[in-house]
Amino acid sequence: MSKLKMNSQLSKEDLEPACPLISEPSILTEIGNTPLIRIKNIGKEVEGVEIYAKAEWRNAGGSVKSRPALKMIEDGEKSGKLTKDKIIIDSTSGNTGIAYALIGKAKGYKVNLVMAANVCKERKGVMANFYGAEIITSSPFEGSDGAIRLCQKIYNENPELYFMPDQYNNDSNWKAHFETTAREIWSQTQGKITHFAAGIGTGGTIMGNTRGLRDLNPDIKCYAIEPSEDLHGIEGLKHMESSIVPGIYKESELDGKIGVSTEDSYKMVERLEKEEGILVGHSSGAALHGALELAKQIKKGVIVTVFPDSCDDCYIRSGHFKEYMESLHD
Fold it and tell me: In terms of domains, do 45 and 194 share one?
């Protein structure tokens, strides 16, 4: 198989998350058009398969979630459901919250985020707070499902006060990927992609890209990647059999699922740093482990996956955010 003619070298800028310190409306133009990078060393033993990953940490906001967050908010504006007197509220495990907070600050909206208590204390929760969002905590023992239930309760008590995008059930979530990410992947692989695989969180990434890529070539095979255990440590991903299944997730449209253990995800993060020079989070480790398992099965093709974000440590940056983080420990 001839390799795609593309520049897959990562620059220093590509390795840094796009978490701007100053949010102006123009920053929203930096959502989308992320690099597609070749995984050169991991999986090279499968000679007939090329593996690529979308570097979604290059979105303003630092993750793949900036795409659907922006579309859900802008579609809310277009429909008239989101007005300047309303507060944006939604549940999140971190990345979508940062995106809501960044976009809300740029557009002039108040943002309330419902997060599990253990997440709000981590860097992603602090980042969302830094952009001006108010954090409401749910039980750390109930994970993302607990945050979903609490957010719905708050909204139901005062629906006239809030605009709730409801990322798990909002079609604008998957449509963001249908309209942007899938088209970018098609163009960046010169239409040579044969397989797509991505993790399941809200379901937006896997469903939007599946539909978008098949709109361009119905023969592309698409697989969801999920934690293999119900109790797992892969932030942002859902084990569907033990979770509230998002309304936008339609498993019947996929060619299959690939289970990845927490241990394998963590090991892959280490391998990516040592063998590829890429610093990513555990959901990205799961994505590449799943893509590698798929590569071993098909033995020939072009697989594209999605790296949702960078490693958490990369959220600590120079300037005002670093000072803000340090002030929390004074």
Answer: yes
* Averaged pLDDT, groups of 10, the chain, 330 residues long: 53 56 73 96 95 95 95 98 97 89 93 84 68 89 89 97 96 98 98 98 96 98 95 86 92 97 95 93 95 95 95 41 48
Which residue range(s) make up the domain with 150? 66-167
Tokens of 120: 């709000």
| C-alpha–C-alpha distance, residues 180 and 137, integer Å | 32
Looking at the structure, do residues 110 and 39 belong to the same domain, yes or no? no
What ranges make up the beta strands (E) of the chain?
36-38, 49-55, 87-91, 111-116, 134-138, 162-163, 195-199, 221-227, 256-260, 301-307
Domain-located, residue 13: no
Decide if 16 is inside a domain. no
Active site residue 65: yes
Global pTM reads 0.87
* 143 plus 273 within the same structural domain: no
Catalytic residue among 3, 44, 65, 84: 65
